[in-house]
Automatic annotation (TrEMBL):
Reactions performed catalytically: (S)-malate + NAD(+) = oxaloacetate + NADH + H(+)
Enzyme Commission no: 1.1.1.37
CDD domains linked to this entry: MDH_cytoplasmic_cytosolic
First-level EC class: oxidoreductase
Entry protein name: Malate dehydrogenase
């Protein structure tokens, strides 16, 4: 039998955490033959709720779950973890702007970075979910210099999956037939969902989504807007933000990263920019990536038209601003 993998979930008593931990314990993240030990971190006000989650995990009698660490101590939480899913953060409440929560999240991600750097297992893979996800990941990278930049990523897979689902509805094909959409840039309303390179698998082979839709105007306007605003629509409907789809996307992200992407398929991940597609090096920017042997690489050579170029630049601009805002919080 395989040795258990230690998976940390921060903010585990929150709503994404509640949806995510049972998925991990069921093998959705790392596969049905991979035992796991769950490390769950939250803060003092949520300590009782966290205990409750631990009790439920025990009661669910998951065969793959070999242990649970539930704690409010960051060091204990990070000890020996192979995978860290960072969901904990200071929420953006109604009437607040992203920049209002920046100082709080900068200090949280600075502390979590140091704990991971000192106590995580070597080669620990990190996924930042909490918003502002891309910028929290930059702060984490800054304060955990010994963790390779290849190992620090942020979640844009939910946006990617939303884009797949919109194409599937529009073309009336099953979601599993659609692939290779791209979410470029920031996990925010400036993200650019791009279906110009996407394909649909049909009985007569692969067809281009762009040809099947035959309406660039729709791809440029409604499609982009629906994907960008989907999170808000869910809040309106549920009075709570996306949780089960976010948890599922986090599992997809880690599963593809660790176990690989299928041949001919790419996915979107927020990763360290090496300057590909003219994106400022050092930003954490969502790119199309393929994964093999536990490493992602940015898909190269896609043709970028003028429309896409402008959208990709605009979201990069926003990330540059967020980054400088985050660094200015550090100096306060
Ligand atoms: P909740 O407020 O339900 O849960 C957050 C949890 O984090 C709470 O239990 C809180 O006590 C805990 N927490 C706060 N500070 C902490 C700290 N310093 N250490 C450890 N835990 C801490 O939010 P939820 O709906 O679960 O969302 C979590 C985060 O995901 C938010 O930042 C949210 O904006 C972000 N999202 C990101 C998405 C993405 O695609 N990247 C999509 C979904 C979601 O909106």
């Amino acid at each position: 039998a395989k040795d258990p993998v230690r998976v940390l979930v921060t903010g585990a008593a929150g709503q994404i955490g509640y949806a995510l931990v049972p998925m991990i314990a069921r093998g959705i993240m790392l596969g049905p033959d991979q035992p796991v030990i769950l490390h769950m971190l939250d803060i003092d006000p949520a300590a009782e709720a966290l205990k409750g989650v631990k009790m439920e995990l025990t009661d669910a009698a998951f065969p793959l779950l070999k242990g649970v660490v539930a704690t409010t101590d960051v060091v204990e939480a990070c000890k020996g973890v192979n995978i860290a899913v960072m969901v904990g953060g200071f929420p953006c409440k109604e009437g607040m702007q992203r920049k209002d929560v920046m100082p709080r999240n900068v200090s949280i991600y600075k502390a979590h970075a140091s704990a991971l750097e000192q106590h995580a297992a070597p080669n620990c893979k990190v996924l930042v979910v909490a918003n502002p996800a891309n910028t929290n990941a930059i702060i984490l990278k800054e304060f955990a210099p010994s963790i390779s930049e290849k190992n620090i990523t942020c979640l844009t897979r939910l946006d990617h999956n939303r884009a797949l689902s919109q194409i599937s509805e529009r073309l009336n094909v099953h979601i599993s037939a659609v692939k290779n959409v791209i979410v470029w840039g920031n996990h925010s309303s400036t993200q650019y969902p791009d279906a110009k390179h996407a394909t649909v698998t049909t009985n007569s082979g692969e067809k281009s989504v762009r040809e099947l839709v035959a309406d660039d105007h729709w791809l440029h306007t409604e499609f982009v807007a629906i994907v960008q605003q989907r999170g808000d629509d869910i809040i309106k409907a549920r009075k709570l933000s996306s949780a089960l789809s976010a948890a599922s996307a986090a599992c997809d992200h880690i599963r593809n990263w660790v176990l690989g992407t299928p041949k001919g398929t790419w996915v979107s991940m927020g990763v360290h920019s090496d300057g590909s597609y003219g994106v400022q090096p050092g930003l954490i920017y969502s790119f199309p990536v393929t994964c093999q042997k536990g490493e992602w690489s940015i898909v190269q050579g896609l043709k970028i038209d003028e429309y896409s170029r402008a959208k990709m630049d605009a979201t990069a601009e926003e990330l540059i601003e967020e980054k400088s805002l985050a660094y200015s919080c550090l100096n306060e």
